[in-house]
């Protein structure tokens, strides 16, 4: 065994073995450093992605709230217009009923044509 070690570790081979050992240690150290930098980059990318997601979620929530407010305002306008339409329909129905009652109250309801009294009942 000593002979084998003495043959391997001669004055000519020891510097080469030390250089090879230093290269191996340097390579391992470089690989570890690259792994740590890669992990750091991955962490930064994940952080940036989560910040971007949070920003867009906040923007989406803000726009959704704005849309909900606009929908509420629009529904209120629709209700108001619907009330006005119903009021106009009721007023027209009441006016028609009053005109029919006034027409029925006039003498000569079975006569043909329009008399002056009936013409006055028509809306202008």
From TrEMBL:
Source taxonomy: Bacteria, Pseudomonadati, Pseudomonadota, Alphaproteobacteria, Hyphomicrobiales
Coiled-coil spans in chain: 71-105
Alphabetically ordered keywords of this record: Coiled coil, Membrane, Transmembrane, Transmembrane helix
Name assigned to this protein: Uncharacterized protein
Top-level taxon in the UniProt lineage: Bacteria
Regions that span the bilayer: 14-34
């Amino acid at each position: 065994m000593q002979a084998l070690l003495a043959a391997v570790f001669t004055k000519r081979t020891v510097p080469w073995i030390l250089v090879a050992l230093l290269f191996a240690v340097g390579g391992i150290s470089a690989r570890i450093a690259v792994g740590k930098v890669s992990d750091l980059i991955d962490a930064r990318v994940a952080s940036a992605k989560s910040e971007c997601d949070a920003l867009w979620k906040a923007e989406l929530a803000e726009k959704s709230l704005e849309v909900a407010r606009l929908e509420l305002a629009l529904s209120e306008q629709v209700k108001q217009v619907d009330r006005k339409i119903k009021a106009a329909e009721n007023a027209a129905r009441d006016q028609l009923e009053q005109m029919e009652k006034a027409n029925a109250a006039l003498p000569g309801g079975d006569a043909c044509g329009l008399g002056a009294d009936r013409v006055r009942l028509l809306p202008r």
